[in-house]
């Protein structure tokens, strides 16, 4: 078990997501920055769907009850293992009783903790990803614990990885969305020749942007949306759906983020700048 | 021969959007459901693909593959042209109990004034109609229902409620439906259903699917309380009827 001494601001268990229930209105969920998590699970030689902890903004304090191996990744935070500073994308052995403490957020927004063979929390509709009320909890709570399998010996093929991090990137590759054709020249100019700022309204469901563009009055029938779909509201607000985003919507879907752009955006917080580049 | 013209559009690299004419129509929904059956049976493996129907569209998603759109676009048009008449999956009419007690129907008296119609008449009209499920989304198990009688059309509330309780039955514009969980919401609340619309403990967590039909029937407060307990322990028996294609 991994004991939660402090939970952090918003810490969840996530795997690659819950698929096959979108026609019943269930969002896919799963890790927001799948690029960083795939590196973590690769280093641990885990299945790519192994569940990790997604740590948002401020991190937890954790105690390991059994021996295992861990890898950190995603956002850079000041993390110590028994008071010794440890770094991202490097395999560390942890022993029973070890304490992992997250300190200051240095760069990015979402940090990840991967463990050998992943966290073994309950599968709900085929996934371990937290999403209330599909799962009972929306995030991990103080004085609770998360199961994992003890691992005494593991000799990683690669013990450290230099990752071309998503943290410094600000350009988001986008594809044309289904309603791209509705955009006027003026709207296109507004979209592609300026920077946007991430609004305070940003979470696992959606990221809003502060700057408005010319609105769109077109009324359309409700239709499917995907993680990474950029909707344009009548008021000209851009709403980017993320992993917990609703599965249908009624606003024009003007653009669609690439998978990599989803990971880049997942590391942004209020006030950060981004821009779009059409693929 | 399929009678509608469809458009096929790329939707990112993992999905394709197929669209029918921009109308709310049963015959269009039928075509979409038939096409899903045809694709599942002949071309697109259900283990790899997700099929999301809603009103006049069908979104096909294959999460692990970067789709070759130039190859798939003509294929999808060709498949649609040759699909012929297919039996869609069995469709049901579900009869769902609703207590229209004023304790639950928070806005009944207000919309009675707006519509110039008695509360009894609103309940009668709302529960006589048969609604079609045109989509499921917004929340897990939330149904987009079509078929609200024109005389019951009433604008959504000017200020949404921060919390509408699970099971609440709402009415707004051309739409009615049940909130499957506590949620913010702007629809007028006219009653409450004790039937859980989404239950993660069940293998099929949501008994309703797109294309099914819904009818509400009024129950008393006492019946509501009984069904509510049945719902909580998972032994509720729903009234359903097979619909002929």
TrEMBL record, chain A:
<keyword id="KW-0067">ATP-binding</keyword>
<keyword id="KW-0547">Nucleotide-binding</keyword>
<protein>
    <submittedName>
        <fullName>Biotin-dependent carboxylase-like uncharacterized protein</fullName>
    </submittedName>
</protein>
<dbReference type="Pfam" id="PF02626">
    <property type="entry name" value="CT_A_B"/>
</dbReference>
<dbReference type="InterPro" id="IPR003778">
    <property type="entry name" value="CT_A_B"/>
</dbReference>
<keyword id="KW-0378">Hydrolase</keyword>
<dbReference type="GO" id="GO:0005524">
    <property type="term" value="F:ATP binding"/>
</dbReference>
<dbReference type="InterPro" id="IPR052708">
    <property type="entry name" value="PxpC"/>
</dbReference>
<dbReference type="InterPro" id="IPR029000">
    <property type="entry name" value="Cyclophilin-like_dom_sf"/>
</dbReference>
<dbReference type="GO" id="GO:0016787">
    <property type="term" value="F:hydrolase activity"/>
</dbReference>
<feature type="domain" description="Carboxyltransferase">
    <location>
        <begin position="23"/>
        <end position="279"/>
    </location>
</feature>
UniProtKB/TrEMBL annotation, chain B:
<keyword id="KW-0547">Nucleotide-binding</keyword>
<dbReference type="InterPro" id="IPR003833">
    <property type="entry name" value="CT_C_D"/>
</dbReference>
<keyword id="KW-0378">Hydrolase</keyword>
<protein>
    <submittedName>
        <fullName>KipI family sensor histidine kinase inhibitor</fullName>
    </submittedName>
</protein>
<dbReference type="Pfam" id="PF02682">
    <property type="entry name" value="CT_C_D"/>
</dbReference>
<dbReference type="InterPro" id="IPR010016">
    <property type="entry name" value="PxpB"/>
</dbReference>
<dbReference type="GO" id="GO:0016787">
    <property type="term" value="F:hydrolase activity"/>
</dbReference>
<dbReference type="InterPro" id="IPR029000">
    <property type="entry name" value="Cyclophilin-like_dom_sf"/>
</dbReference>
<dbReference type="GO" id="GO:0005524">
    <property type="term" value="F:ATP binding"/>
</dbReference>
<feature type="domain" description="Carboxyltransferase">
    <location>
        <begin position="6"/>
        <end position="208"/>
    </location>
</feature>
<keyword id="KW-0067">ATP-binding</keyword>
């Amino acid at each position: 078990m991994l004991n939660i001494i402090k939970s952090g601001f918003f810490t969840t268990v996530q795997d690659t997501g819950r698929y096959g229930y979108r026609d019943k209105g269930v969002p896919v969920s799963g890790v927001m920055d799948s690029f960083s998590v795939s590196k973590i699970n690769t280093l641990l030689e885990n299945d790519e769907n192994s569940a990790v902890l997604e740590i948002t903004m401020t991190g937890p304090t954790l105690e390991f009850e059994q021996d295992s191996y861990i890898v950190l990744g995603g956002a850079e935070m000041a993390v110590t293992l028994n008071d010794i500073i440890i770094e991202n994308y490097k395999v560390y052995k942890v022993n029973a009783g070890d304490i992992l403490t997250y300190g200051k957020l240095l760069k990015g927004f979402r940090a990840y903790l991967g463990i050998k063979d992943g966290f073994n929390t309950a599968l709900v509709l085929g996934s371990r990803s937290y999403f209330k009320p599909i799962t009972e909890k929306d995030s991990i709570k103080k004085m609770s614990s998360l199961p994992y399998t003890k691992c005494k010996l593991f000799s990683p093929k690669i013990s450290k990885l230099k990752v071309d991090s998503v943290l410094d990137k600000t350009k988001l590759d986008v594809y044309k969305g289904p309603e791209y054709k509705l955009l006027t020249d003026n709207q296109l100019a507004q979209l592609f020749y300026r920077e946007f700022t991430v609004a305070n309204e940003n979470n696992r469901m959606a990221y809003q942007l502060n700057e408005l563009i010319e609105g769109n009055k077109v009324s359309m029938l409700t239709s499917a949306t995907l993680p990474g779909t950029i909707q344009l509201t009548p008021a000209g607000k851009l709403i980017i759906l993320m992993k917990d985003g609703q599965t249908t919507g009624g606003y024009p879907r003007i653009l669609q983020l690439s998978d990599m752009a989803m990971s880049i955006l997942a590391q942004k917080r209020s006030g950060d700048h981004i821009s779009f580049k059409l693929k | 021969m399929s009678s509608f013209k469809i458009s096929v559009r790329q939707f990112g690299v993992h999905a394709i959007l197929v669209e029918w004419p921009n109308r709310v129509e049963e015959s269009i929904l039928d075509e979409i459901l038939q096409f899903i059956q045809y694709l599942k049976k002949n071309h697109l493996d259900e283990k790899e693909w997700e099929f999301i129907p809603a009103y006049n569209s069908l979104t096909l998603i294959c999460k692990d593959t970067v789709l070759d759109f130039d190859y798939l676009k003509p294929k999808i048009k060709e498949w649609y042209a040759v699909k012929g008449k297919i039996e869609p999956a069995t469709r049901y009419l579900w009869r769902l109990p609703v207590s229209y007690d004023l304790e639950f129907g928070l806005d009944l008296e207000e919309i009675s004034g707006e519509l110039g119609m008695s509360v009894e008449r609103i309940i009668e009209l709302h529960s006589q109609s048969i609604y079609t499920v045109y989509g499921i989304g917004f929340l897990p198990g939330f149904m987009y229902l079509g078929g609200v009688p024109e005389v019951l059309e009433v604008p959504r509330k000017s200020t949404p409620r921060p919390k509408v309780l699970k099971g609440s039955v709402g009415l707004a514009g051309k739409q009615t439906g049940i909130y499957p969980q506590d949620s913010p919401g702007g629809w007028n609340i006219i009653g409450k259903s004790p039937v859980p619309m989404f239950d993660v403990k069940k293998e099929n967590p949501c008994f309703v699917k797109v294309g099914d039909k819904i009818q509400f029937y009024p129950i008393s407060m006492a019946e509501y309380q009984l069904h509510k307990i049945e719902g909580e322990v998972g032994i509720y028996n729903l009234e359903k009827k097979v619909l002929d294609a």
